[in-house]
Design a protein that fits this description.
heterodimer; A: alpha+beta; Beta-Lactamase; Immunoglobulin-like; 9-stranded mixed beta sheet; 5-stranded antiparallel beta sheet; 10 helices; 28% helix; 33% strand; B: alpha+beta; TATA-Binding Protein; 6-stranded antiparallel beta sheet; 41 helices; 12% strand
Chain lengths: 500, 956
């Protein structure tokens, strides 16, 4: 039942390819193959030859022989099946049935032979199956690749986010140098609960020194990522994309300082990270009036090690009307409502650890009016001759400093970029989506309002709507803060940064 | 030693290679994208396979190719790893850098693409280095759980391959358990088969257990698994005692009804090897017969017939019962199949079934008559021969067939007709009871005979066996009738002869054409037949026959066949002589005598006229003249010679033939007997004895080993010493001698090189070159040889055809003080053709066919000191290692003339034919020619050289 070798040779006896399935020396196989053409008789109606030791079963294919060499006890019925299969495979892989054709496809043939005969034993396969095996198209691999791709994308997103955060913190630092209020807590001030006590601070001490101001009343890193939308929400993704793109540009423009790089690298190893995030989703009508004003906030905790999982967080917040909290089912509600301490219901159960952030508290602020909007945009298109002039202005409330503000104005299809007459900030024209993006890196006291004017060929004024706006801000509406982290187990001392 | 050689897994034709390509390949591998890399890998593998070593490429491959995620490249990488030298030739250990591939292999084993995993596992099956395998084992085992059957299949075979390695049980100590578990849960047929095979090979008791627990369901198993099961049963029953054989036989019987014919075939084979009980053998034989009739493929039929032949050898009595089933295979149109069937059947004749067989054959003969198929004639000839053989063994059946067969005397297929007439000739001698009716029949059908050879024989029969008055008279009248009106030729017949010569002319031409080629006759005489050859004549003769349907003899003679004419003359002489004995009336006898004389004279007249392009040859002329003289002047001595001695010598010939056949039978029977000094095996002592005869006889294993060339017979040492060749002189700085071993397809030179100087020889290299159909397998390597030390160098040379080859070469070396290289030229090594040919036999007809067909002839004039022809023949036979096909009886007697045919076959399956014709000259010397014919030039030339060299004889 053993096929020793499958070979192809020309009628003149030149061996084109031979695949052995059983260990045999080169001299042996070459000898067997060299003997074959002499043994093949002409005018016979059967296609096998036996010698003292082996049996050749062959099939002429045009000017070639396809043959398999078997031992003499081999099952002829099986061998013929195998040969038949091989003879169907050869034309599939060889571009032409002559020496040259076979020579070019030698390796394909070898792999195909391998599929048809596994280590000398016949496989029950069809031509289609062999082709499938040889093509190696695998759904699992595709799936795996997709997963990998999405992971890569995620990481990239993450990186961009970080970059923007770093950027922010850099600006913050600039701000704090100008001695602005402690309201604007920097991004990544993390607390260290390693057992080294207050002395754990040297690194962070550094940070604070460079910031020259101990403004970190909150040990948490808080962040406000806001999306304010004008018009329909569909644009959100595109909007976020452009936001990220902007972030990258910014990174390239600015020289990251040593501290920043440390900042960006440090968080990975911090044992406990608290993230406070508020998302702002607003839809405003063209003629004024709020359609929808919604703020959603989350407090998420990330603990790296199991040993640090036994903690409680002390939070505080400003009393804002319409603010309502929701806690994770595992959080002790009583403790939260009475003392504003976030702790697990079961003190023996640590917070989940790992790379994932666990949302612990969520809140919502509703019933806010137009006056609380952090940014208002006015757009005035006016047609004059064969051109349309568009004037846009923004006005920011002084409650927040806004970072990475991007105002995207849809334009009618244009051949060339619009001519921008005047602008506070920078602009970019995305011709594919035909969107003009007006970006202002930072809106603070110095530029609470700004304007831009550009001209495009005459167009319908309504084609400049809906305008979407995106930004981020370092502080939140609710102004929620984590003031302290209390360890629950002995042997861990908490390096509280409270009162700095 | 041969086992240390690396196995070769792949051969690729590649003629564009050059070592300089290595750099290109390297560049492509480093920089290219997927397809470029793949192409470079292809070239690299081809170069490797053609003997380049490419030592620096490995690192490049590791660095640049492993990381490539193109599937094609990955597959080629595996092929590359398969071909690349993985062991250090000096130590036999795995090269240290090979460990670099492990990581890649492991990644591949965890690759999301199931096919990458699969092919990698398959590659691992061919990996034998335990160092490399060790880190891979966990990943391989993990793949057993893979979702896709493609991966599981190969994982199982990989485990099997690893476990079978020498240190396999350390690498995966629990492999059998793991595989057994996998087998229990596995669904895929091929994977189950692989698992089962693994158990069969490594843990037979587990496999047996699995088989026996599932015995009920075996018939539902997929065919791949069934095959493996049958294989296991074979193996188990061969090695074990016969305690529980019944259970296995039960399984086999169940499988005999399996839907897959391959399984059924395998079962039949297993059944025979399992048991010699008549029931089992009968079941097997029946199965074979079923397959024989159900399978349409000729290959299958032929091989099944081979199996039946084997069965016949060991279980004749059982086979006798299935003879009619076997006969049914005659329905196949293939000649080879039919021939084999007839051979088989003829061996199975018994008094009981002979009637039936002959009846069947007769029906077949009639069928060929009805349907004038292309091969009808050839087939009919085979049938006639078969019937002939039947009647030789069982003469009583002759009566029922001989008359039927005699209808075929006029067959257009000459060979068939000749067979018939020979048959008739033999029967008429051995079966006196049938004589009368046969002679009558022959006289009736004589006019239908068209072929000259048949005519000749028929005439002889008429002459010998027409005994009674009426028979003799009707025989004479029939011959006269067939000759037609006398004279054959008259001058006045000008007009008519122009008519008849027209059709005659082309006949003569064809005769001359065909007679140009010398023919070796059955008795070994090497003759140029000037008489019309039967093959060429048959068709035109038939055409002529239609003109004058009763005058067949006349048309043949008019076409110039004077040999036939001389036979006619002899026959008439005999008949007349007999008539004189049986005819009471002297007048009638004299009348017949004069009639015969008239015919003979007419023939002579025709022979000497210018009517035919060729005049009568001297032999025929002499013979006819002799007949004329005899009839004019009869005597008792002559009468006795003509009427009795002829028949006597024919009877002698038949007796001799039968004697030879029985002798052969006896000789065959003799072989199967055990020799008194044969080894006796005791089952109970087997385990302590290591290899026993029984294990040696494990046919399948041996078969496989023989097929892969692992059998190396140990030649006895005395022989070994005879084969040592001195290559350089004793006073040369380097002494070398070689020991030549000739295997079938390769020659191994073991060269011992000894440094005879007091200096260190550097870069010593044994450079060899070959002449003839020899090829060096590997390149020479450089060695450094310390003062007065020796070194063994081995060189492999490949042989592809039988032919004398010469290996020559030199040893090149450097010494520290002489700058240029020194050269020692070696003695030539001649590879003897005698190592490749062995005596063989073939039928007379085949010999003559081959003689006619083969293109190369080498003619060697006899030049010898030997005085006796017989002695000379024996000398040639001995020195050429051939077999004499001419029977010894034909060589008997002293006539100063000898002709014989010799035959041998080479290990490559080539035929070598030799014909010797010698004659003793008046001065006592032998003269003549030896002719060698073969399909290839090599044999003819080499054998000729050999004979020229050896024929002198004398001294030896």
């Amino acid at each position: 039942m053993v096929v020793l070798a499958a070979s192809m040779m020309s009628k003149s006896g030149k061996v084109l390819v031979s695949r052995q399935f059983v260990d045999m020396t080169r001299g042996r196989i070459e000898g067997l193959l060299a003997a074959f053409p002499k043994l093949v008789g002409t005018g016979k109606q059967h296609t096998y030859v036996e010698t003292q030791d082996v049996r050749y079963v062959y099939q002429p294919i045009e000017a070639l022989y396809l043959l398999i060499i078997t031992n003499k006890q081999s099952n002829i019925l099986e061998d013929l099946d195998t040969l038949r299969l091989l003879s169907k495979l050869v034309p599939e892989y060889s571009p032409s049935l002559d020496e040259e054709g076979v020579c070019t496809a030698v390796f394909d043939l070898v792999t195909a032979f391998d599929e048809a005969i596994s280590l000398g034993n016949k496989e029950n396969v069809t031509v289609a199956q062999v082709k499938q095996y040889c093509e190696m198209e695998s759904n699992e691999e595709k799936l795996h690749k997709l997963v990998m791709q999405s992971k890569v994308n995620e990481t990239k997103d993450h990186m961009r986010q970080r970059v923007t955060e770093i950027e922010k913190s850099k600006i913050d630092r600039g701000k704090s140098e100008k001695a602005f209020g402690p309201m604007r807590s920097p991004n990544n001030i993390d607390m260290n609960t390693r057992g080294s006590g207050p002395g754990a601070g040297p690194i962070f001490g550094d940070i604070h020194k460079t910031k020259e101001q101990p403004l970190a009343s909150s040990p948490a890193h808080s962040k406000l990522a806001g999306g304010m939308k004008l018009g329909k929400g569909q644009k959100t993704n595109q909007f976020l994309e452009s936001l990220k793109a902007e972030g990258e540009v910014i990174l390239e423009d600015t020289q990251p300082s040593a501290v920043q790089s440390r900042l960006s690298s440090v968080p990975q190893s911090d044992p406990i990270t608290v993230k406070i995030e508020e998302k702002l989703n607003v839809t405003i009508k063209r003629d004024g009036g709020v359609n929808n004003f919604d703020i959603q906030g989350t407090l998420a905790l990330q603990v790296l090690n199991d040993t640090n999982g036994f903690i409680q967080l002390q939070i505080e917040n400003q009393d804002v009307t319409g603010l309502s909290f929701k806690t994770h089912p595992n959080i002790n509600k009583e403790l939260f409502n009475s003392q504003q301490i976030v702790g697990a219901k079961d003190p023996n159960r640590p917070f989940p650890t790992g790379q994932n952030e666990t949302p612990l508290v969520k809140w919502r602020i509703q019933e806010l009016n137009e006056a609380s909007l952090p940014l208002a945009v006015n757009c005035w298109p006016s047609v004059s001759g064969n051109e349309t002039y568009v004037n846009i202005e923004y006005e920011a409330s002084d409650m927040f400093d806004l970072h990475n503000v991007v105002i995207s104005i849809p334009l009618p299809a244009l051949r060339a970029a619009p001519s921008v007459r005047q602008i506070d900030g920078e602009w970019k024209y995305d011709s594919r989506n035909s969107v003009l993006e007006w970006s202002v890196i930072l809106i603070d006291e110095s530029n609470r309002s700004g304007s831009m004017e550009f001209a495009v060929p005459a167009a319908d004024p309504s084609s400049f709507f809906p305008i979407s706006v995106g930004f981020s801000a370092p502080s939140t509406f609710s102004d929620l803060k984590v003031t302290a982290v209390h360890p629950l187990r002995e042997g861990y001392r908490c390096s509280s940064v409270e009162g700095r | 030693m041969a086992s240390a050689e690396k196995p070769c897994t792949l051969l690729v034709h590649f003629d564009k290679g050059s070592p300089s390509m290595a750099n290109e390949i390297k560049a492509d591998l480093e920089s290219g994208d997927g397809p470029t890399k793949a192409d470079a890998m292809r070239r690299a593998i081809s170069l490797l396979l053609n003997g380049e070593t490419l030592p620096h490429l490995f690192i490049t491959v590791v660095r640049y190719v492993q990381s490539c995620d193109d599937h094609a490249v990955q597959k080629l990488l595996l092929l590359y790893l398969e071909t690349v030298e993985k062991r250090d030739p000096a130590t036999g250990k795995a090269l240290p850098e090979m460990i670099l591939i492990c990581q890649n292999l492991r990644n591949n084993l965890q690759h999301p693409n199931e096919y990458i995993r699969g092919v990698t596992l398959r590659f691992i099956c061919r990996l034998t280095e335990p160092d490399l395998l060790e880190p891979l084992v966990p990943s391989i085992l993990a793949n057993l759980e893979h979702r896709h059957h493609f991966v599981r299949r190969h994982a199982l075979s990989a485990i099997s391959a690893i476990y079978r390695l020498p240190q396999g049980d350390q690498l995966i100590p629990d492999a059998p358990e793991v595989v057994e578990r996998a087998l229990a849960t596995e669904q895929d047929a091929a994977a189950r088969r692989n698992a089962f095979l693994m158990l069969c090979a490594c843990a037979q008791e587990r496999a047996v257990e699995y088989l026996l627990t599932n015995a009920e369901r075996v018939s539902e198993w997929p065919d791949l698994l069934q095959m493996a099961a049958v294989d296991l049963i074979r193996k188990v029953c061969r090695s074990k005692g016969r305690v529980d054989k019944g259970r296995y036989i039960k399984i086999i019987i169940a499988l005999l009804s399996a839907p897959s014919t391959a399984v059924v075939y395998e079962c039949a084979g297993a059944l025979v090897s399992l048991s010699s009980a008549p029931t089992a053998v009968r079941a097997a034989a029946n199965t074979y017969c079923q397959l024989l009739s159900s399978q349409s493929d000729n290959n299958v039929k032929l091989i099944i017939l081979d199996r039946l032949h084997e069965l016949r050898a060991s279980h004749r009595e059982v086979m006798v019962d299935v003879v009619m089933d076997v006969l049914r295979a005659l329905a196949s149109p293939n000649v080879d199949v039919r021939r084999k069937v007839l051979d088989l059947v003829l061996d199975l004749l018994t008094p009981r079934n002979v009637e039936e067989v002959v009846l069947y054959l007769k029906k077949e003969v009639v069928k060929t008559q009805a349907a004038e198929a292309e091969k009808g004639g050839e087939y009919r000839q085979m049938l006639v021969q078969a019937i002939h053989a039947c009647t030789v063994k069982y003469p009583e059946v002759a009566g029922s067939v001989v008359h039927l067969l005699m209808d075929f005397l006029g067959d257009t297929n000459v060979a068939a007709a000749v067979d018939v007439v020979l048959f008739v000739r033999e029967i008429i001698e051995t079966n006196p009871k049938l004589r009368v009716s046969m002679i009558q029949r022959l006289i009736d059908t004589f006019y239908q005979i068209r072929a000259s050879r048949v005519c000749v024989c028929a005439l002889w029969i008429l002459g010998e066996y027409s005994l009674s008055l009426s028979e003799v008279e009707s025989a004479i009248s029939t011959i006269k009738q067939c000759l037609g009106e006398l004279p054959f030729y008259t001058v006045s017949e000008e007009g008519e002869s122009a008519d008849s010569s027209k059709p005659a002319q082309p006949v003569v031409n064809s005769v001359t054409v065909s007679s140009r080629r010398p023919v070796v006759l059955a008795d070994g005489t090497y003759a140029t037949q000037s008489a019309a050859t039967e093959t060429a004549v048959s068709a035109p003769a038939a055409a002529l026959g239609s003109l004058a349907s009763t005058q067949n003899l006349r048309s043949l003679i008019l076409s110039g066949d004077f040999f036939l004419a001389s036979v006619v003359a002899c026959t008439l002489t005999k008949l007349v002589l007999r008539l004189e004995e049986v005819q009471p009336s002297k007048v009638e006898a004299n009348k017949a005598c004069t009639g015969a004389l008239l015919i003979m004279v007419s023939i002579l007249q025709l022979g000497q006229s210018s009517y035919l392009p060729h005049p009568i040859d001297n032999d025929s002329y002499d013979r006819i003249v002799l007949c004329v003289r005899l009839l004019c002047n009869t005597g008792d001595d002559v009468r006795k010679v003509w009427l009795q001695s002829c028949r006597q010598s024919f009877a002698n010939m038949l007796a001799e033939k039968q004697f030879r056949e029985t002798e052969e039978m006896k000789a065959k029977a003799q072989i199967s007997h055990a020799q008194p000094d044969d080894l006796i095996d005791f089952y109970h002592l087997k385990s302590r004895r290591g290899m026993s005869q029984l294990e040696l006889e494990d046919a399948v294993q041996d078969d496989l080993k023989a097929a892969t060339g692992q059998f190396t017979k140990d030649a006895d040492d005395t022989n070994k010493l005879n084969r040592i060749l001195q290559l350089t002189g004793f006073s040369d700085p380097v002494y070398a001698e070689a020991f030549v071993t000739v295997h079938h397809y390769d020659i191994v030179l073991d060269v011992t090189v000894i440094n005879r100087t007091k200096e260190t020889l550097q870069n010593l290299c044994l450079e060899l070159a070959t002449m003839g159909d020899l090829k060096l397998v590997d390149r020479p390597q450089n060695y450094t040889l310390a003062p007065e030390s020796s070194k063994q160098i081995r060189a492999n040379i490949k042989v592809s055809s039988t032919e004398t080859g010469v290996i020559f070469g030199n040893i090149v070396y450097e010494t520290s003080n002489v700058m240029e290289r020194s050269v020692v030229v070696l003695n030539d090594i001649h590879i003897d053709i005698m190592d490749y040919i062995s005596p063989a036999t073939c039928a007379d007809v085949t010999f003559r066919n081959m003689w006619a067909e083969f293109e190369w002839e080498n003619k060697v004039a006899v030049n010898t000191v030997i005085q006796d022809e017989k002695e000379f023949l024996n000398h040639i036979i001995k020195s050429t290692n051939m077999k004499c096909l001419t029977p010894p009886s034909a060589l008997d007697g002293e006539c100063g003339f000898l002709a014989a045919n010799l035959y041998a076959k080479s290990v490559f399956g080539e035929d070598a034919l030799v014909n010797i014709s010698v004659e003793k000259q008046a001065d006592g010397k032998l003269s003549g020619y030896i002719r060698i014919r073969s399909k290839t030039q090599g044999i003819a030339l080499s054998l000729g050289d050999k004979i020229t060299l050896k024929q002198k004889g004398g001294s030896s």
